[in-house]
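wait is this the right file?? whatever heres the structure
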């Protein structure tokens, strides 16, 4: 926790399931996605933290060796870790970092993985209807 607070760069690990999902955020580059961590529900709305990867806002993609996961394990944030906090605390913890990269489990290969620069949007209620 202390290393995450003191670091100016953090990495968010993303694995699709019922509380972690993504969708395209533009028509020009359909591979640019918004990623969501669902913290809970308020009636028919999801309380979710949004991580936006967009070619104009957060365009950087970096390919690194898979050993990166072991090297940076102290500053990799998982869904389980982040949802120990409420959404406001989680947004405060990572929302003001200089760099936030997302590690999509689907982008992990045998020897390398792709880091996607993202912007933390924070609280955007999503209708579940």
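ok assuming it is, sequence goes like this
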């Amino acid at each position: 926790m202390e290393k995450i607070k003191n670091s100016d760069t953090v990495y968010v690990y993303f694995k699709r399931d019922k509380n972690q999902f993504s969708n395209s955020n533009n028509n020009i580059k359909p591979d640019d996605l918004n990623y969501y961590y669902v913290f809970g529900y308020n009636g028919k709305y999801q309380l979710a933290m949004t991580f936006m990867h967009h070619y104009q806002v957060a365009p950087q993609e970096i390919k690194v060796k898979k050993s990166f996961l072991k090297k940076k394990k102290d500053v990799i944030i998982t869904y389980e870790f982040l949802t120990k906090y409420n959404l406001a605390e989680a947004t405060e913890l990572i929302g003001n970092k200089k760099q936030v990269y997302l590690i999509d489990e689907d982008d992990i290969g045998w020897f390398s993985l792709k880091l996607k620069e993202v912007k933390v949007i924070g609280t955007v209620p999503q209708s579940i209807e």
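The beta strands are 9-14, 20-24, 33-42, 45-52, 61-65, 76-77, 99-108, 112-123, 126-127. so i think its the right one actually
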